[in-house]
Structures are given as structure tokens and as C-alpha cells.
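hey so i finally got around to running both of the ones u sent me last week. sorry it took forever, my laptop kept dying halfway thru and i had to restart like 3 times lol. anyway pasting them below in the order u listed, first the sequence line then the C-alpha cell line for each. didnt double check formatting much so if smth looks off just lmk and ill redo it

first one:
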Amino acid sequence: MELLRSNMSRVQIPEPTHRIYKHECCLSFDTPRSEGGLFVDMNSFLAFGKEYVAWNYEKTRNPVYLHIKESPKSVPEDRPLKKPTLLAIGVDGGFDNNEPEYEESYSIVILPDFVSLPFPSVELPEKVRIAVDTVLSAVGAEKREQVAAWTAEEKKVSEHALALQQLKSGVLIPPSGWKCAKCDKTENLWLNLTDGMILCGRKNWDGTGGNNHAVEHYKETAYPLAVKLGTITANLEAADVYSYPEDDSVLDPHLAQHLAHFGIDFSSMQKTEMTTAERELDQNTNFDWNRIQESGKELVPVFGPGYTGLVNLGNSCYLAATMQILFSTHSFISRYFSHQSLKLAFEMAPADPTLDINMQLTKLGHGLLSGKYSIPVAEKNVATGDVRQEGIPPRMFKSVVAAGHAEFSSMRQQDALDFFLHLLDKVERGNNMRPDLDPTRSFKFGVEEKILCSSGKVSYNKRDDCILSLNIPLQEATNKDELEAFNNQKSDQGSEENNMSTDEIVRPRVPLEACLAMFSSPEQIRDYYSTALKGKTTAIKTTSLTSFPDYLVLHMRKFVMEAGWVPKKLDVYIDVPDVIDISHMRSKGLQPGEELLPDDVREEAMESAQPVANEEIVAQLVSMGFSQLHCQKAAINTSNTGVEDAMTWLLSHMDDPDIDAPISHQTSDVDQSSVDTLISFGFAEEVARKALKASGGDIEKATDWIFNNPNASISDMDVSSSNSAQTPAQSELPDGGGRYKLFGIVSHMGTSTHCGHYVAHIMKEGRWVIFNDSKVGISTNPPKDMGYLYFFQRLDN
């Protein structure tokens, strides 16, 4: 006790502003349930596992710790599984993992000799008792920042329900036997509460659902509210009411009155259909996506170094799939595992290691690759009987990598491609003091765009990239005869794909080589301003690569616009070989006899590049029901490339906090830090300033402006050599031969990249392994033809 009193100056009583860690070690994935328990520094309130607490004492000389140990209670073996009724994790009515219950024990430990004192005890100094009680009663920073429970947003009362005008049409709705008024659909039917029309719901990307008759009726009549038949019961709050103008499920406080208008006695009706939220819950609990997840096959679990699963934190599968593949590359393994110890990373980290990207990447790397946490749990999964591993929860990593990003810091599903690009940017910034250690360089390559003007003169524009985003040319499908026969059979029989088994459906098969060829094929640029002709003309753009990366990432653009400007996911197979050769895609540079376009960037041309939306694109989007302002922003932010790209941007940015803010046409002096950022990309300062001025100071838009105005950057590009001289940034890029071997696939199932589920398949030790969140097992049939992102490693000659 005297030893404790002599160190009282090192004990703090937590303030409300303190971040208190008590659920997970800052340097590892040890928890109070680990063999050594967890030690909370009573000065900094950081937590450490038994192996690491001494490192913290050496670094800080903080000697007093609260030791927390959790031990499992005995639980009856026949404890039933509870079916979730709420789309939530870790709350009443939410998902129940049937985990054992634990009891906690506490003690005060004084380093360096690990002297232990019992807690609670009246003999402890009052300051210590108050400090410990405050720590135990506080919400841990881990749970405050990465909430384990996520719940669907509560429905709001519709503004259209309060003054809904119902037509006196005399329509009476029977209690059953409904059918769409415009087709033969008998499921997914919606009753319009204005005129009593019964129509089918929206068609899903995979052909299931309805035929869009309900939403088309709204567009024709502007009648705002519909209720889903089959969801009406005595509990009217559970009925699924949809507001088309508000584009959301809503509450109708006058629903009983609105139903009575059509003779509906809700008190006697039975529930026969799932609500929208229940269908989402059903997808989250079942994941009935057999092919990608290899469901129905006996999954042989794998354990050991490199085979550690990642716990799903709630819609974090995009993160798990991406990180599993990145930590299968030599560059990330070397940087954050084999050549970086946890102790060294901790010594180099700031006072709070939870906020350091390099520390948390090292923690994640050691967690995934050491094998320490890839061990079978003591008991089998009660529900399935499978031997499983618990996996590690990447909470601190997600918190630091998502800091300041509105989407990645949320609990919503995200696009794995967006996360991959965001992560590479974070990692590059985290290694800016030691670029030689930067693992993201292994993904970078140079891109060269050659523009041939109708004058016969050329310009070259170069940039760095880390993905090849490929369009899918369906016209190059290799099974056209089978497709035609399938479509004819479907038409003759009047059948729909959602009534067929997966084996019966014929989908287009497009070779990857055709997608790569499309990337390199010449492309027309209309209204191109030629400095040689001093006017606009049509030019030809050809894209090639100036270097080949160590790791090549291919992104398949599966989301397109179908007839009626409805976003659709291409139901297509991509035939991807194990080895590809992209040598033919290498740039040849400036050729003998080619003459460069003159460097004459007109000020009026720069001014005309102010962000102005293409009126045709805006009109088409507005006709689909979107607001004028939102459509203008979508067109501007996609550089007016087309309705498809604008729609994709619009759907993924509807929840942006500034989506309703007026469009900025800033013309004042640009921010110097933004100029410096563009200069670091390899652009000249003059070009950077013009681009930022033309783009209202937005770096991303400025970059697009430079690429869309290649004449503006000619002065910064050294293309005088027939060998296509590289910029300083490009000269540091890795390079080698053009042969690559497939080693990783990120697959996606769902209606868009922002919902559904992501899974990774990785080639390890000569066999394919599936990483499905915390599940890790040998893959018997990897979905090579269904990937969203493909990862290739260059083969050394």
C-alpha cells in the first residue's frame, strides 16, 4: 500500500473529455478475456495486454494500472438461439451470437514488479477508488468510436400523410386475392392511397421484384403514398408505407382512415409480406448468395499465420475483404510485419498510439499474420456445429483510417474500391517522411494519354494511378448463341429469371482480354479545343501505360444505366485467366515525325472551364425525379462524362451534408496548400492555380480539369524524347515485365456497391482460401468470373 501511495501523483481521475480504453489493447488484440487480462494505465487511460504493458512503463514511467480480467460463466448447453427482430447488433431484439457470459475481476497493479492489490478495497486511497470507479462506469473509447450496435433509422411521419387527398372512386379492396393492375404479379404489391390502384413494386437489378408499375404510376399522377399489401395488420405502425416524393419508408398517422376509404378493415388482416426493413434484415441474416460465399459446400476451416479472420463490425465487410488482400502482398507484409515490430512501432508512435495510422496498421498486420489469434475456439458453433475462430475486430484501425471521412466513419456499407483508394492515400501520407518504406508504391503505375488533333498534331498527358477501371463490352461475349437461345426460350415461355434456378440462367461471358483491349482502344473526344486550329474540333485519345506496377488492380465497372435511365448491375461473367500479359499496353511515347500541339493555354479557355453542368445530362436526370441542383452537381462532379457516371455519383452522394448547398463558383485566390498538393502530383504551379480557380478550389475537380484540358499541362510534360521521358514522380515508380498472375479477388453481391456483402478469395500456399469476415476456409470453387476487384502480382522474368 505504501508503494501505491508513493506513486499517487501518477494517478489521474478521468475527466469527461478523457478517452478511456478498457476493452482492447492499443498494440494488440488482447482483451480482458485474454489469458493475461488487460491493464489500464491510470494516467493516460490507454489499455495494454500482459505482454505489452511493460513497454508502456518503459516509455512513460506510469506505474499504476487497473487490471481487468474476464472469465466465462457456466451456461446451460441447451440455451436456445434467439431470432433477431431488429436490424441491430448487441441490443435487445438484435442479433444474438450466443456468446458465453463473463464475470469480471479487478485489481490494482504497480509496475515494474507487478505488485497486485485487491479491488474493491476500503484500504485503497480515496483518489484511487474514485479513479477506478470512474473508469469502470465510463463508456469505453472503443465502443464510443466504433459502436458495436447499429440500428436502422426510425421512420418519420410523412408530410404528405397529413393532408392526403383521396379520390372518391368507389374502389373497394378485398382482403386477399390481389393482382397488379398492369401485369400478372401477385406479390410485392402496393396500394396507392390516393386512387386505390394496386400495382407491383420496383424491379431489382437481378430481375426479381416487380415491374416498376407502382413507381411509374406515381410519375404519371404524382400521387405520393402507397402501402404494401400483405404488411397491413392490427399493428398499423408495422405496415410498410412508402413516400415517393420523400423516397423513403414513412409513418402515416392517418393510415386507418386512409385504409377505411377503400373498405379495408385492418384489424382482421394477416401479415403475408415482408416489409422493406424486414427484407433487409433477412438478407443480413441469410446472405443467400451461394456462389460467391460457396454456401452449401462443407467449408474446411484453416488456422495459423495468415489465416486470421476479421470480425464484422456492422457493414464492415468491404474493409475486411480489402485488408485481407493487402496483407497478402509483400509490400504490406514487409512494412507492417516482417520488418516492423510492435515495440518499434509503439516507440515511434505519438503519446496516443490509437491515433497513429502506422501503429494501427502494424497492430493489424501482426494480428492477421502472426497466427496468435487464428486458433479454433474451445467450443463449436452452437448453431452450425462448425469449428470456428473468433477473428479479430479492427475497431481501432477503422477509427483511425476513417477519421474525418463522413462515409467510412459511419456504420453504412461502402464501396470496396473507394475504401482501397482512400486507404492508399492515408498510408502514403503516413509514410511521407520515409517514402522508401511506402508500400503503396507497389500499386502505382504511370498512365499516358495521347491526343491526336485533326490538325495531325499530338499532345501527351501523364498521370499516376493505382487501379485500371475497365468497362465491360457485352458485345464481345463469347456465348452469344446460348444467350440468344436463352432469351428466345424465356420470351416463348413467358418466364422470368427470378422463377428460374441459378443453373438455368444463361449470362454473358466476356473475356478479360476484351475489357483490357477496350481500355486501350482509341476514343473520340468531341469539342476538343485545339491550340493548333485555335478552335474546337474532334480528337482521338489513346491510353497506355508508362510503367507496370508490382501489383496490378483491375476494377470491373459492373454498374450501368439500362433503358429508362434506371441504374443496373450487369449480370455478367468475366473469364479471367490465371496469368495475363499486358505488355502490349506499354506506351511508345513521342514517335519520330510527330509534332506536338503548341503550348497556348488561353485564359478564355480556362474561364470557360468553370464548373458548368451539361444541360442534356441534367434534363435526363431531372426527368427521373431528382432535383435540379442535385443533378447539376452530379454532372459537374463527373466532368459531364455522361448520364451513367452522373447517376452513379448522385446515388452515392445523396446523403452528403452539403448536397443541398449552392454550387460554388469561387474566383478568389486559391489556397496555397491545395496548390502544393497538386504540385506534389507532378503538375506545374501555374497549371495547378488555373485548375483550382476553374474548379472553385476543389482538388479533385481541379485534377479532373487538368486531365480534361491536357493542353494546360503540356509545359509540365517532358515529351521531347521518343522514349517518352517520365516526370520525376513517374521515374520513381516500380516497373518490370507485363506478365501477371492472379492472386486475389474481391467479390460483391447486392444491388449496389453500397449495400450487400463483400468476400475475398486469396491464393495462399498454392491453394485458394476464402475470407468471409471471421470465417476462413479452403475454397473449393473460387468465383474467378464474378469478381469486382482483381489483384494480380507481376511475374519476374
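and the second one:
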Amino acid sequence: MSATTPAVSTTPLTAWWNNMTLSGIYPSISTTSTTPSTASSSWSSHFIFGGNPSTAANTPQSTVPPSALSSGYTEDITVAGSLLKDKITGLMDTLMGRESVHAGCGYGEDGRIAMMVDKVYLVDRLGSHENLVGTVHVTTTHIIFRAENGSKELWLATGLIASVERGTLTAAGCQLVIRCKHFQVITLLISRDKSCQDLYETLQRAAKPVSVNVTELLAFENREPVDDARGWKRLDWPAEMARQGVLASQNPKWTQSGINEGYTICDTYPDKLWFPTAASTSVLLGSCKFRSRGRLPVLTYFHRQTEAALCRCAQPLTGFSARCVEDEKLMELVGKANPNSENLLLVDTRPRVNAMVNKVQGKGFEDERNYSNMRFHFFDIENIHVMRASQARLLDAVTKCRDVAEYWKTLESSGWLKHLRAVVECSLFLAESISRGTSCVVHCSDGWDRTSQVVAMCQLLLDPYYRTIHGFQIVIEKDWLGFGHKFDDRCGHVGVLNDEAGKEISPIFSQWLDCVWQIMQQKPRAFQVGNAFNERYLIEIHEHVYSCQFGTFVGNCDKDRRDLNLSKRTKSLWTFMDARHDDYMNPFYSPTAHVALLDLDTRAARFSVWTGMYNRFDGGLQPRERLEDLTMTAMEHVGVLESHVAQLRTRLAELKSQQQQLSTSATTPTNMIDSGMSSATDELKNLSISHPLDPLLNTSTSSSSTSRLLERATSQESGVMDSSLYYPDEALTRYSLKWQPLRGADRCSNPTCRGEFSSTIERRIHCHLCGMVRNDDSGQISDKMNQKLKKSAENEPILNEAHLQIFCRRCLKSTPDERERVCDKCKSD
């Protein structure tokens, strides 16, 4: 990195910081020494009367001499005065009938608080990158670090903060370690102890706000009009059940029931439920009262080939001797709904010891003697508390261990891979049973944690539809969101007021995504989001589950999301991912290669640590280039070149026809058809050239449309090529035959963006025209640029950052036909 400070450029942070309305208290802590003549306040506050943002920059700041920093007395007076002025401003706004600029946008009642601390070092714990000095900005929604030389800008949503740890004061300063829910670890080094303490307390308030109001999450900060019906209606229950084959006309043994309309009998179930047709309302109500949380057995998946059903529920309230005739009858009807086998397999995912303990609390498990044609099976999947501790030990292994022996010892003690294996084995057992024609009923304690894991995984193994991008979203909507996995409690979306609420946090959904990744390593061609692309897909889902940027995973159940009116107030994650559909495509996907994945290897050696997830931000541990990214880029480049070849051949045919026309004009009447024209047309009609994005969009140009295009181009009425298909010579020479390799592309090439790729998981996209080097107007690299490139050591950053064309998605625009992506410069040219 060059030692000289580059010219100040406009960045997203600069624009945001210069234009945002400052309200409340904005402490600006400076660790630099100042002279009395140019002294700046260690605490500076801006107050805006009437909500006019333009006056913020001109607001006078109080000045404090450096000597006052040690005592802190003047700081306290300044802060007290700022608070008093804030209150007076709010009172004046109320009296004048104006909307307060502090209302509804801060921590509690004190309004929006933003903090700025400069001279902070961002430390790379692995030493793969040099430490950067910069400024930390804290707002109510984000924490931003910006390097002084503009080389790095890091944004972190406050909802992603899991914990903040403060180290001891040393000669170099005091360390702050920010651990995030998506497994990013940010280490800051601050020279002054007081500045470190102030920042530590601010981050603690940001990570664990006093208020537990879910409407204060980032998803509700959206100021744009929400029109996201497509994303919020991703799951259509009747349509999904019809796809499975559960319709009165297809299978009269199962029917939809309106017993839970308005969430009357179970508020953690969806309002549309499917039961055996023979089950009466009294049977359903009786079974509901006998099951924990009212979660009675309901259908979630119907296997069309064997007509076996997969049902889910919660544990029964048996205690030591209780029984329920209605519940026994409902179980019997579930078995009889399968014409191929009346035997029913009931799977309890808990260890037997845990189930026995629950009997003391009046719950427990079913007695096989009371249920006809039923076999019982336990699986040793541990509870949420064990999983929480297990992942904590796993993170210690992947982030703190420095030698191999310590790493393997910590990993073994975590038991994480053992837990993954237990979930996959249970899911495989269910899939094999259903494929043999045996209906299954699954439960754990309350039926929303372990049950969701194994039921959703079982469907992935059985149904290839759920292994597509759209189908994967459907199974999440159905078996996680619809059947009431408590995302708010398990992910800690809101502040934790006591230890009991803290014990509800557990990485159940993260563990399921890890299990999906483990299966993808064995069957990469079976998933449309397979292999490394599955990582990008799964990791983005995982991140936004915790970031709360979208409303999809807000709430503990479907009823909560309807009560919060999320579809009208927030955006859906699925719409966001739909716009990036090709980022998640698997170039090796074969829809017919695997139907049911029943030959999985569940030996312990086949389970490994998902470093793409847990070490995502550790650049030194990630590959510089991924095979799947290289394959997809090569396919895209081939498509672009084929399109270019088609243009060149069209131009060649045009030149041939013009030559033939000139050679025969002296002897042939002008109204005759040029013989060379027909030969050129025949040559073009035999071409079969696809468009550059056809491998991604799964579309191809039809031969009929190509024929019509060429017939129009070689119209007998004109005798010349159609001008609409004329390709100027400069357009035919602007394509780059070489594209920049992905290795070394650390940031977007757009000079107005310069966004950094935080990890190799992020998608890097080529411009279809200037894929490698930006040329000057003559189409050649300028002499001045050649001289610069000769100085490789000094100009390597220039080569990587300014002239090699790798872009982020927001800096590339699609052509009107959506078949090419071009950067702003190529678009303007």
C-alpha cells in the first residue's frame, strides 16, 4: 500500500456522514493532540432546530483545551449542556407543533446517538493483511470503520453483534473484540483508555438495547415504499400441497381443515392445516389438548410415489400414565391414510433420558401399548442448550487455537460434528422409511427445533424440487417459518432482559444449514445451489437471518408476522435473492442425476468443519479462486465470445454481399437478386450461436426467430443488409478477448464505488466488454499506461484496483435485452 495519502474521494460513508441529519448527542472523540489556536473539542455536539439538515455543518462547536481531557470535568459539563439543549429543542418542537428530529430513531428516549472515534487501528488477527488506522462511526443501525487512506470501509449492522469484549490496557492501547453472529471477528486497538471505554459502552448499548420492541429492528427502518407481494407470497399452501399430490381429486384420504383459522387452536401453527379426511373435529380438538403447546400431528409432506405421509407434532402430555383416546385415534387414521402400509413409525428426536425427565413435568412420550400398528424410535439429538455450548467451543477452535493439536482437541470437545451427524442420520432414517412406504410422525419437545431440522432435511433427501433455489425457499417457508421455529428467541433479534431469555438463544437454524452443506459435499450435482455456490447461497441466508435487514425471519411464528404486518412494512429476503439468482447457480447441476439421496455416507470421517462459514472473513484461510466461480466465469465468457463471433460472421456476410453486388452491378439489372446474398444468407442460417447469459438463464434463441431475423436482414426488396443488424466496426472491436482472473480482485473497479469484497464468497462480476484492461479511445493501451505497468512493484495496486475490470453487482447495468452486463464507462461509450 502506498505511504502517501490518496486524494479524498466521495464514498458511501462520506456522502452519508456529510448529508445525514445529526440529532441527539454526537460525541467525536479525538486522540490527536491539538494546539490552542486550532483546538477542537474532544466532545462536539450538533443540534438542529426545525429539523433542517443543512445547518448541521455550520453549527458552532464548543472548544476544549487538551489539558481538560485528563480531568474529564469540561467533558461532563459539555455533555450535560448538550443533553439540556436537546430537551429544550424537543420541548420547542412540541410547543410549535413540529415533528421532532429526535423522535423514534434512537436508543430508548434519548433520540438517535452516533459516535465517532478516530485513530483506531483495525487489527488483522491472522496477520495476512496489514493493520489499518481509521475512524469508527456508530449509529443506531450500523457500525462503520473507514481507513484514513480510504483503502477500506467496513459496515456492520448492529443486529449482527453477538458480544463485545474489552481487553486490558497495554502500552500500545486497549483492544476491543467484536464477535458477530455471522462469525466475523473485528479487533480494534484504541490508544486511549477512556475512548476505548466510551466506545465499549456504546457498542454494548447498540448490541443489547434496553428496549425489546421488535419494531426497532433494522427491517423497519426502510423508508422506501414496500411493494413486495412476490416475495411475501412465496409459499402458497394449497399450490404446494397440490404439487405434492394432496388434493381431493388426487388423494381423497387427506383434506384441508379450517380448524385453525385465526390461529384459534394453536397460535404457532399456520392457519391452513391438512389432516386425514376421516378425522372428525372432536378428534382433532382432543388431540390438540393432549399435545404440548396444542401442536397436534399435521401433514407436512406427502410422498407421491409411495403415498406415505410425513407428519409433525409436539410431545404428548402423558406424564407417567395419562392417555388420550382422540390422540390415539388420530394416529391410527394417519396410518390408515396410507393404502400401502397401515404401520406407523413414530420418531422422537430426543435422547431417551431427556424424554424420561420430561415425564416428571407432566409431558414425555407415547406408550406403544396404547397406539395400534405403531413402532417407536428414539434419536439422540441434544437440546438447544447443548447445541449453544457446542457451537461456542467450535468457534473457539476455529478462531482462537494457534496450533494443530489444540485445534483438534477443542474441536473434539465441542462435539459439533457429532451433532451434525446425528441430525443427518435421523433425516436419512426418515427418508428411507418413507421411500419404503411407511408413514412417519416426528416430534421432539415442542416440535419447533429438532423436528424442523430433521423434517426439512428429510424432504431435501426425498424431493429434488426442494434442492432447487426456489424449492429450497419453499421448504424454509413451510417447515421453519410456517410451523413456528422461534427465530426471534433463537437468534436473539431483540435485547435479552434476563438470563432466562438468554438461554433461549441457540444456533438451530445455523446447524441445519451446516447439515445441508455437509450433504452438498457428497452430492454436489444434486443441488441447483451446489458446492461453492451453495456456500454463497446458504451464507447469505444465514447472514440475513441475523442481520434483520429483511422481515422474512422476524417473529417467532406466522401469527407474529401477520400481527406485525411485515408484508406491508418490510421487504422480503426472497425478492432480494431473486435479483441475484445467477449468483447461486451451480454449473455442475444435473436435475436428473439424483432423484432421492438415500445413499449418503454417514461415517464420522465424512463430516468436516465448514470453513467457508466459520472462517468466512479470514482471508488467509480461504482459497484465492474457487473452482465453481472459475467455471461459471468461463461459461459466461464463452457465451460473450460466441455472441461476438456471431456479430463478426454477420458483418462478414454483409461485406461478401456488398462485394458481390459491386462486381455484378455492371452486368446485372438492379432489381435482380444478388446471388451472393443468398449464399451469405444460407451461411448465416446454419449458425447456431447462443447468447452470453444463456447458460445462466437456461434460454436459447429459437431457430424460427433467427430465420425471421436473417430473412429481414436479406430482404429481396432492398437487396442489401438491413440497417438494424448493421454492426459498426468500432462495436466489433470493443470486446475483450481476455478477462481478468478473479485472483487479486479485492474491490470493485468502478472509481465511484471502490467497494471492497470482504471475502471470496462475494460475487465478482466481469464487464462483458472490458473484461480485463480498460483501453483508451484508440483501442490500444496508451504509452503512458505501458510505462506505468513496467513499474510492477509500485503500480501493482493501480493495476489491481483501477484498470482491471472486476465489479460488484450494483456497478454493472444489464442491456435492454438483459443478455449483457456492462460497466458505466462502456455503457456511455
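quick thing i noticed on the 2nd:
Residues 517 and 534 are 7 Å apart (CA to CA).
anyway thats it, ttyl
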